[in-house]
Amino acid sequence: MFDRLFNEIKSIESFSDSDIELGNGFLDEFFIEKGDYFLKEGQVSRHVAYIKSGLTMHYRIYDGLEVPCDFLRENQWVAYIKSFMNKTPADMAIKALEDTVLLRLSYNNMQQLFQLQPKFLALKNYYTELSFIDTAQHAADLAVLSAKERYHKFMKEKPDLINRVPQYYIAAYLGIKPQSLSRIRKER
Amino acid sequence: MFDRLFNEIKSIESFSDSDIELGNGFLDEFFIEKGDYFLKEGQVSRHVAYIKSGLTMHYRIYDGLEVPCDFLRENQWVAYIKSFMNKTPADMAIKALEDTVLLRLSYNNMQQLFQLQPKFLALKNYYTELSFIDTAQHAADLAVLSAKERYHKFMKEKPDLINRVPQYYIAAYLGIKPQSLSRIRKER
DNA sequence: ATCGCTTCTTAACAAATGTGAACGGAAAGG
DNA sequence: CCTTTCCGTTCACATTTGTTAAGAAGCGAT
Q1: CA separation for the pair B173, A118 (Å, rounded)
Q2: Contact A95, A37 (CB under 8 A)
Q3: How far is the alpha carbon of A114 from chain B, nearest alpha carbon, in Å?
């Protein structure tokens, strides 16, 4: 059932089958309906989670407007590291844009897992680095590319999201207004 | 001599004095002249380093233009995780904007350190998360703030860099042209 | 299917940022 | 010390993006 996650994990840190079983024991399945929250602003994040199916969005509110900074979907990990690791109230929220099925790992379970098998620490490191690289690329795109170029790149790299994420969220993610995105889309 | 680094490390992961000594044994001091490179594009990064003094800049070339994505200075760690961890050629360069004194840690030494004391793995995790948070904030600023707001925020948060980094680099970091930055600076 | 609400589109105009060029001063190198 | 190059500034004008407002289209709930 969770083959994809486990095969991926094995290839990253050469986990044994017993490691996998160990890890599996600490996960619990969790469901979030479309529009509901994985993490609300002000809460301390207690879990990270692997997305079995569905779609989540990290975002902040600026001037009453929801501004996304990340979209995560099936076969990705969702977490707000800043709140989760430091146990501080989140200055950001995460909500489901679709009905979403998760495999959750709590903070305490994660710490136990790290004690029992330090390779899992290296694994978490690995995933953090992946997110870091993505975020750095997004920042570079915002600094260097025009609005039009950012949209075309988004379309090329995440074509599935174009139809799963409302356009005003995509616009905000790209740092432009919905009307501007509409204008860009109209050109050819 | 390295009190600041060691005190910081101790407070993060409750390292003992012998841990600190262990770590210290794996570091070597390294000097980079202003304008020289910590990492060239195309090279595989072999080290991370703690900056004792000086200033470095991560950047990419776009249209023949150097576009910074990070400035790091004394008491911070400099690294290009993507190349260093995956042993892939860097798609980015890091150079010194001032004469810079580093404490370097090689990839092999880091791995040894992780074997001998897994806490160091948690420490690396911690520093990666810090950079991640900074980068995510920078991306959000680029998406949400106007050029003027980005500049004022930069001035407020990193006032020392205003005088240490050439303005055309700051402009590129903020995602604007040098002339626009000049115009913003002129207004009062 | 209909109603009500949200999202998307369009347009005219305003504001912000980019472009190209010129100038002057600062810094670097001989 | 002089020369050369680089950097920061300024300006006029072009282009991009934002703003405001309105209507069309999509979507959910009844």
Answers
A1: 38
A2: yes
A3: 10
A174 chain-B contacts, CB cut-off 8 A = 143
Region of poorest pLDDT, from A19-28, A97-106, A143-152, B49-58: A19-28
Residue A186 banded pLDDT, cuts 50, 70, 90: very high
Spatial contact of A76 and A51, defined as CB atoms under 8 Å apart: yes
SS3 A185: helix
B182 CB below 7 A from strand D atoms: yes
State residue A130's pLDDT score: 94
Phi, psi of B65 (to 5 degrees): -110, 135
- CB B82 to CB A121 under 8 A? no
Q: How confident is the model at residue A187 (pLDDT cuts 50, 70, 90)?
A: confident
pLDDT at B95 over 80: yes
> What 3-state DSSP class applies to A22?
helix
Cα of A133 to nearest chain B Cα, Å? 7
Contacts 24+ apart (CB under 8 A), B37-41: B37/B93, B37/B94, B37/B95, B37/B96, B38/B78, B38/B94, B38/B95, B38/B96, B38/B100, B38/B102, B39/B80, B39/B83, B39/B90, B39/B92, B39/B93, B39/B94, B40/B90, B40/B93, B41/B89, B41/B90, B41/B91, B41/B92, B41/B93
What are the E-state strand segments in A54-160?
55-62, 65-73, 77-78, 93-96, 100-106
Q: Please, where are the H alpha helices in A145-177? A: 147-157, 159-164, 167-173
Q: How far is the CA of B83 from the C1' of C8 (A)?
A: 42
Q: In the structure encoding, which two tokens stand for residue A79, read together?
A: 């977490």
